Amino acid sequence: MAPKLSIIILNYNTENLTRDCLNSLKKVENELDFEIIVSDNGSTDGSVAMIRKEFPNVMIVENKANLGFAKGNNQARKIAKGKYVLFLNTDTIVYPNTLRETVDYLENHKEIGALTCKVVLANGELDKDTRRAFPTPWVSFSHLVLPLDRIFTHSKLFAKYWYGYLPEDQEAEVDVIQGAFFLTPKKVLDRVGWFDEDYYLDGEDIDICWKIKVLGYKIIYHPEVSILHLKGATKGKNRATQHKVPLAARLRFRMSGVNSMEIFYKKRLWKHYPLIINLMVLAGIKALKFVRFIKVAFL
Predict the structure, then answer these.
(1) pLDDT tens-digit profile of 234-272?
(2) Which residues pair with residue 132 across a beta bridge?
(3) Same domain for 226 and 259?
């Protein structure tokens, strides 16, 4: 019999984080019937051997190289059998009742195409990227160019990117949920073609949410349950782990986010705005690329 849920975890040289994540899942294995698939992106730190030894029931897809987030996760497509699919980061800890509650919620709300829980950082604060608006020109301008959302934190006009005007414990329909905990019915995932592999890292969660919305489904932030997110630990953005990630890898990781902005805008938003706006947006993205490169390489 097929499991109710397939949990897909992308691993790349995060042995200890992956162990902790899998141990948290082991503690809740009686909540519902789920399978775990680890898609490994060519790790060299002993991650795969550790998983085989300590978690023999976990299925492993061994990729020969670091394929990035989208393509790496998509490698599990051919073996995932669950009615629902959860994409879960290695740098997360799943708390009791989170899996059962979120899957039950989808079972009872067929109009929902994707759902996330409350994603909490190590300092106890909400991970703001848990719920986001699509990066339209105005939303991007008020978030990246003039960070008005940091000034008018509760304004519907200026603080839409992170939905700052909504209480963090309020359930809401949103545009985008984060790939750290991304739960969706497999039939919806199959209809949208899984993640767009034009994205290497970052942006793929925004893109897939766009495609799900186009089909007419809702995307829901459901904060009744939560997980812990040790944000940035896998990308060299977390100060505690930054020294473990080589400069070249950190550059690729950080620049990929800006590259993804350009890909998403050209794919999904270009046709919705006049040429002058499009050119201004692209100029802004190029400037942001330059600034980010300087920060990562020299600061």
Answers:
(1) 654 445 544 556 766 677 777 777 889 999 999 999 999
(2) 176
(3) no
In angstroms, how far is CA 37 from the centroid of its own chain? 17
Domain, as residue range, for 271:
246-299
Q: Which pLDDT tens digit goes with each residue over 19-54? A: 999 999 999 999 999 999 999 999 999 999 999 999
What is the CATH number for 92? 3.90.550.10
Return the closest-CA partner of residue 183 out of 264, 125, 257, 100: 100
* pTM of the complete model: 0.91
Q: Which residues lie below 8 Å from residue 181, measured CB to CB, with a gap of 6+? A: 86, 87, 88, 89, 92, 116, 117, 119, 130, 227, 229
Residues belonging to the chain: 299
Residues 6+ apart with CB under 8 A from 120: 126, 127, 226, 227, 228, 229
Question: Would you call 214 exposed, middle or buried from its count of C-beta atoms within 10 A (0-12, 13-18, 19+)?
Answer: exposed
Identify whether residues 180 and 75 lie together within a single domain. yes
- Terminal Cα distance for the chain, rounded: 54
At which residue do the structure tokens 């925004």 appear?
206
Domain boundary among 235, 254, 287: 235
Report the range of poorest mean pLDDT among 68-72, 220-224, 240-244: 240-244
Q: What percent of the chain has pLDDT over 90?
A: 81
Say how many C-beta atoms besides its own lie within 10 A of residue 225's C-beta.
17
213 touches 173 (CB < 8 A): no
Contact (CB, 8 A) for 119 and 181: yes
Regarding whether 84 and 21 lie in a shared domain, the answer is: yes
Concatenate the DSSP letters of all residues of 209-237 into one string. Answer: HHHHHHTT-EEEEEEEEEEEE-TTTTTT-
Q: Which amino acid is at 251?
A: L
